[in-house]
Specification:
Layout lengths: L2 H4 L2 H16 L3 H6 L9 H16 L1 H8 L9 H16 L4 H13 L2 H4 L2 H14 L12 H21 L7 E5 L5 H7 L2 E3 L5 E3 L16 E3 L2 H10 L6 E4 L6 H8 L3 E6 L2 H13 L5 E4 L11 E7 L13 H5 L2 H19 L2 E11 L8 H10 L3 E3 L20 E3 L11 E8 L2
Parallel strand pairs: 5-6, 5-8, 6-7, 8-9
Antiparallel strand pairs: 1-3, 1-4, 2-3, 9-12, 10-12, 11-12
Helix pairs in contact: 2-4, 2-6, 4-6, 5-6, 6-7, 6-9, 7-9, 12-13
The chain binds S-adenosylmethionine.
């Protein structure tokens, strides 16, 4: 009997709850993964539930495309959930076909409201099994509205290349506290050092048990997420402000470079992670709970980083739920917040100081449009173009204007999508 066969109904019930939470609201998956659905599950069941949910989310577009012609009318939500999870198990997980089908039928049987759909679930999943694995079509993987946006912004080929990375499970990227330690860490962790210094490893499992974790020699940070901070090139003794700091990857980079750092975030809860992370890697920062738009502090800084809240569409490799939880209206309302945050950030930069604005979004309203608007409103700032290769930025991501538009296909093995621009305040 395979491992997956031994994993029983409780793990699959948890996966159903995870999937429904992921599709119901932004951040729903994170809440569910740490919530009551996992209570009582063994570590192996929890890992299976998570893997099943992630596999389903990574292929959701293709799954729904295959399911649609098999259903004459929309079934209740839970039945749709079981069909989606069943199809993911049939084709993308190491689960025997009979177990993929019988477990979904058994879950339907548990609840009065879904019991009468047992026959439908069995017939549809058997039908899908007979049809065979759907051909890989990147365009089926993203919601149509996002695909259309990416086609407008990056062309048809660019959009297809972005979508093709949705199905790929990413490796883990780490940042070394001391850049000179990267090569030694890569060896310890069976990884490789990427341009810019991030370490990429195919290791899986509990991070806390990986070499050099307890010594605080590294932290987890996608290679794309590590690039914007490097553009600030902070020097020991400089002052730096991280205006949206939690959970803290960029704060750690600033502190590791020797800056005297203020790490601000609106969420006291998320800031606890910053404090914990700082303690583990033995670095320090002044941690402040405040709204970046109205923080009354009058200090100015050599380097200001604004990693603004955004639609996070660039992070779908690690968080495929962002594709399905995002809605078109979110982008416009987040863009308004970003504009207001940039206004506040501007006043906190010393004459001659640098401001880096970044978002983990692929949407131009949250990136290029923000910086164009900012520079038009603030003649006291000039764009300081990023030079090719700077900070480990892939060559393809450096735009003619001199900002970064990092797309997931810009690095072999993938990289999180980011926009980043550096501005300098005139003296
Ligand atoms: C993209 S995340 C920051 C990630 C972080 N820079 C890192 O590298 O780990 C955005 C953060 O902005 C915070 N945030 C949202 N609105 C805010 C506001 N008005 N003022 C300050 N922080 C805010 C959120 O709590 C969230 O932690």
């Amino acid at each position: 009997m395979s491992d997956a066969e031994e994993v029983g109904l409780p793990a699959r019930e948890a996966a159903a709850q995870f999937l429904e939470a992921a599709l119901a609201r932004r951040a729903g998956l994170d809440e569910a993964l740490s919530g009551s659905a996992t209570r009582g599950l063994s570590p192996r069941d929890r890992a299976f539930a998570r893997a099943l949910t992630m596999a389903t989310l990574r292929r959701l577009g293709a799954i729904d495309r295959a399911l649609e012609p098999k259903l004459q009318r929309a079934p209740p939500e839970r039945v749709k959930t079981l069909l989606r999870l069943g199809m993911a198990q049939l084709f993308w997980l190491d689960v025997p076909d009979h177990a993929a089908v019988s477990t979904m039928v058994a879950l339907a049987d548990r609840v009065q409201a879904t019991r009468k759909f047992k026959g439908l679930i069995n017939a549809v999943l058997r039908g899908l099994q007979r049809d065979g694995k759907p051909a890989d079509d990147p365009e089926a993987l993203a919601p149509a509205w996002l695909m259309a946006r990416w086609q407008t912004a990056f062309g048809a080929d660019g959009a297809r290349a972005i979508a093709a990375t949705i199905a790929l499970e990413p490796a883990t990227d780490l940042t070394a506290r001391d850049p000179a330690d990267a090569a030694a860490l890569a060896e310890l962790l069976e990884g490789e050092v990427l341009p810019g210094g991030s370490i990429r490893t195919a290791r899986r499992g509990d991070l806390a048990e990986w070499p050099a974790f307890a010594e605080g020699r590294w932290w987890v940070q996608d290679a794309g997420a590590a690039i914007p901070t490097r553009l600030l090139a902070v020097r020991p003794g400089e002052t730096a402000l991280d205006l949206c700091a939690a959970p803290g990857g960029k704060t750690l980079q600033l502190a590791a470079a020797g800056a005297s750092v203020v790490a601000l975030d609106r969420s006291a809860d998320r800031l606890k992670r910053v404090t914990e992370n700082l303690a583990r890697v033995q670095l320090s920062a002044e941690v402040v709970t405040a709204d970046a738009r109205s923080w009354p502090d009058k200090r100015t800084f050599d380097a200001v980083l604004l990693d603004a809240p955004c639609s996070a569409t660039g992070t779908f490799r690690r968080h495929p739920d962002v594709l399905w939880a995002a809605a078109p209206g979110d982008i416009a309302s987040l863009a308004e917040v970003q504009t207001r945050m940039l206004e506040s950030a501007a006043g906190r930069v010393k004459p001659g100081g640098r401001l880096v604005y970044c978002v983990c979004s692929l949407e131009p309203e949250e990136g290029e449009a923000q910086v164009r608007g900012f520079l038009a409103r603030h003649p006291e700032f000039t764009l300081a173009p990023v030079t090719p290769g700077e900070g480990g930025a892939p060559a393809a991501s450096v735009s003619p204007e001199g900002w970064l538009r990092i797309l997931p296909q810009h690095l072999d093995g993938g990289i999180d999508g980011f926009f980043a621009a550096r501005m300098v305040r005139k003296t």
